[in-house]
Amino acid sequence: MLGELVAFAKARARRVAVSAACVLTAGLFAVFALIGLFAALFYWIAPQLGPIAAALICAAAAIILAIAALLPLMFRRSRPPPQPAPAPEGALPQLVALMAKTAPNLAPRQLIVAAAIIGVALILSVRGNKK
Question: How far apart are the C-alpha atoms of 35 and 79, rounded to whole Å?
């Protein structure tokens, strides 16, 4: 059992590592392609407007692309908080029925403890229903 879990974890880690390496390689090539595009833009605009204006236009284009890449992060919907799991409807009556079945076999001190447990359960169930 433990060997199967370890083998599963190793296989999963290997798949994640291969995926991460592929994404990193693709990102690296995308960065080189983007650098090439900006260099081509610079050399295309530089003879007409001069090197300073070409550099500023390339920088403005990079800022616009960065803002466009971050727009989904800025405007994504926040996830609603997780809803608490509803309490089972029949838990308290089942507890009371179990206590009633075992009550004849309990000593007086045990009956007091059982009554205290039922009281705490009732208080918690009433507090949980206030919404």
Answer: 36
Closest CA relative to residue 45, chosen from 28, 31, 34, 59: 59
Q: Return all residues near 95 (Cβ < 8 A) that are at least 6 apart.
A: 118, 121
Q: What is the pLDDT along the chain (131 residues), one digit of tens a residue?
A: 677 777 878 888 888 888 888 888 988 998 899 899 999 999 999 999 999 998 999 889 988 988 888 887 778 777 777 777 665 566 667 766 777 787 777 788 887 887 888 788 777 777 665 55
Is the pTM of the predicted complex or chain greater than 0.85?
A: no
Dihedral sign for Cα 50, 51, 57, 60, please: negative
Measured in whole angstroms, the distance separating CA 65 from the mean position of its chain's CA atoms is 27
Residue 1, SS3 per DSSP: coil
